[in-house]
From TrEMBL:
Family, as annotated: Belongs to the cytochrome ubiquinol oxidase subunit 2 family.
Transmembrane segments: 6-31, 85-105, 117-141, 161-182, 202-219, 234-252, 259-278, 298-323
Keyword annotations of the record: Cell membrane, Membrane, Transmembrane, Transmembrane helix
Hydrolase among keywords: no
Protein name, entry field: Cytochrome D ubiquinol oxidase subunit II
Lineage summary: Bacteria, Bacillati, Actinomycetota, Actinomycetes, Propionibacteriales
Native source species: Nocardioides silvaticus
Length: 333
């Protein structure tokens, strides 16, 4: 493995982790939006606050990691993507900011009207953020980001591959969130709430799985390089994702929620890995390869040292945080 490929692998590992943990975070907005009115939806929204409250800020560590690694290791491609895709990226950033602010402010609303307003903003921004991030991924994977950054500001991300990417990203987030929320509800003894979330999670999971495979039809014509990769070197990962996603549906159907969370996470992680393997060795598909886009060797070496330190220092703390929240042990502190 060359130095450039090692750094690219470290970069994409951050994308995979963010798609799983950040996705579970964003996906809670779907269940907030479909919870119902103030009285009927109170139990769901309380569960969402309880589930994501301790971790929602920590999940964005991975987005920061990805962006910093990208612009440091592969600055030319970062500049090209930011220039061509600034509009969907700004909309995603706006969603992240509004989501965080509304999530915090809703807890301290003075009136029911204020709480409803912040709830609408939270749910809406939670839905649009993964959609626009998926559109960005689709634009890069379909070869619509030229190396000089002069791509079309609209058609670069409003196209079949990008739109399917956005829908799949949103559906994956909701499927992840549902698997965690239903497990939390069952573990807390809220059987009625768990049953309601179970039905919705099954529906979202089945729809998202269908979207993933339906997307292959337009991608064949719209993004031939990606299609060849997905049906070639990435095919084993796509098959694993399908098996994990189907297994998760069976586990949720049979109410084995604790195990189902890991199956859903595996399905999302492997489909994300499949995207990366599908467009390899391109960083900007049909424009710039990973090796050609890389910066100086000294920079790449320093980045790998930084990644090693992060793995040693940050990962144990984040892992312990997730252990506390998923086992309810944090309530004892």
């Amino acid at each position: 493995m060359t130095l450039e490929i090692a750094v690219a692998a470290a970069l994409f590992a951050g994308v995979v982790v963010y798609s799983v943990f950040g996705g579970a975070d964003f996906g809670s907005g779907f269940f907030d939006a479909t919870a119902g009115g103030a009285r009927r939806g109170a139990e769901v929204r309380t569960l969402i606050d309880h589930s994501i409250g301790p971790v929602w800020e920590a999940n964005h560590v991975w987005l920061i990691y990805v962006l910093v690694t990208w612009w440091t290791a592969f600055p030319g491609t970062f500049a090209a993507a930011m220039s061509t895709l600034w509009l969907p990226l700004m909309l995603a950033l706006l969603g992240i900011v509004l989501r965080g602010a509304s999530f915090a402010f809703r807890k301290y609303s003075a009136t029911l009207g204020q709480a409803r307003l912040f709830g609408i903003v939270f749910a809406g921004s939670s839905l649009i953020t993964p959609f626009f991030l998926g559109c960005v991924a689709g634009a890069i994977a379909s070869g619509r980001v030229p190396a000089d950054g002069g791509g079309d500001l609209v058609s670069s991300w409003v196209n079949p591959t990008s739109l399917f990417g956005g829908l799949i990203a949103g559906g994956s987030c909701a499927y992840l969130a549902g698997s965690f929320l239903v497990a939390d509800a069952a573990r807390s003894g809220h059987r009625g709430l768990a049953e309601m979330l179970r039905v919705r999670t099954l529906g979202v999971g089945a729809l998202t799985g269908a979207l993933v495979f339906a997307a292959l039809v337009p991608i064949k014509e719209d993004a031939p390089t990606l299609f060849d990769g997905l049906t070639g070197r990435a095919l084993p990962l796509m098959v694993l994702s399908a098996l994990a996603g189907a297994s998760a549906l069976v586990l949720i159907w049979t109410r084995r929620y604790s195990v189902a969370r890991f199956a859903v996470a595996a399905a999302v992680a492997t489909v994300t890995l499949g995207w990366g393997a599908g467009q390899y060795p391109w960083l900007l598909v049909d424009e710039v390869t990973i090796v050609d886009a890389a910066g100086a060797d000294a920079t790449l070496q320093a980045l790998l040292v930084a990644v090693g330190l992060a793995v040693a220092i940050v990962l144990p703390a984040l892992s312990y945080l997730l252990y506390l929240t998923q086992s309810e042990r944090w309530l004892r502190h």
